[in-house]
User: Which sequence fits this backbone?
């Protein structure tokens, strides 16, 4: 997307420097309007089908940017028609190229946002606030039900996988509170509490008497 935007800006500048280009405003507006409608419908369908799936979200964003570009083409056709009715009709050959440059500048934040999001996920960044809140809620309920202390909690998200690590620091006299059965119950409780999230949830549960090993 970045490469495409850079190319169209350079090409638009070249056209302006060469004296502009003649356009058919009616064809321009018709094409832009039809293309914008198709692109918007496709973007909405993709978002509905692939919610929270990064690759499909990126594809939907591409179609959304195409919709914006098409809308600008539509506006460009209308602008050219209006220019023909004014003393400024001499600017008609430049109208399309100027709108292409403006549209590209408006779209630059979209690929930048996708790049930043992708890099954060590749580095295993923390999930967004809503997911973190759900994780804390699910872990808190299980800890209360099992009579366990508030754990040292870590969560990360990479692609479609959310990884959760809950480390419980228990007193030496905790007895069977930190046995395998307890760990399994905690994992099941967290898993069930997050079952409605559209992610693969990976859960690690640790019990220790030494906080220095998990902090």
Assistant:
């Amino acid at each position: 997307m970045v490469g495409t935007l850079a190319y169209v800006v350079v090409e638009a500048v070249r056209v302006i420097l060469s004296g502009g280009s003649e356009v058919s405003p009616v064809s321009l507006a018709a094409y832009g309007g039809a293309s914008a409608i198709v692109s918007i419908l496709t973007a909405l369908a993709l978002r509905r089908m692939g919610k929270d799936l990064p690759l499909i979200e990126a594809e939907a964003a591409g179609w959304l940017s195409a919709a914006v570009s098409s809308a600008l083409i539509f506006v460009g056709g209308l602008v050219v028609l209006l220019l023909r009715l004014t003393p400024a009709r001499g600017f008609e050959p430049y109208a399309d190229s100027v709108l292409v440059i403006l549209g590209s500048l408006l779209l630059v934040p979209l690929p930048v946002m996708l790049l930043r999001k992708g890099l954060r996920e590749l580095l295993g960044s923390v999930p967004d606030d809503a997911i973190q809140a759900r994780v804390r809620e699910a872990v808190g309920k299980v800890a209360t039900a099992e009579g366990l202390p508030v754990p040292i909690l870590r969560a990360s998200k990479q692609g479609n996988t959310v990884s959760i690590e809950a480390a419980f620091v228990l007193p030496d006299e905790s007895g069977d509170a930190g046995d395998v059965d307890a760990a399994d119950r905690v994992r099941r409780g967290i898993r069930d509490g997050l079952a409605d999230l559209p992610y693969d949830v990976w859960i690690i549960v640790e019990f220790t008497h030494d906080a220095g090993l998990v902090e």
User: Anything to note?
Assistant: The CA atoms of residues 169 and 211 lie 6 Å apart. The first strand starts at residue 152 and ends at 158. The two ends are 42 Å apart (CA to CA). The mean pLDDT is 83.
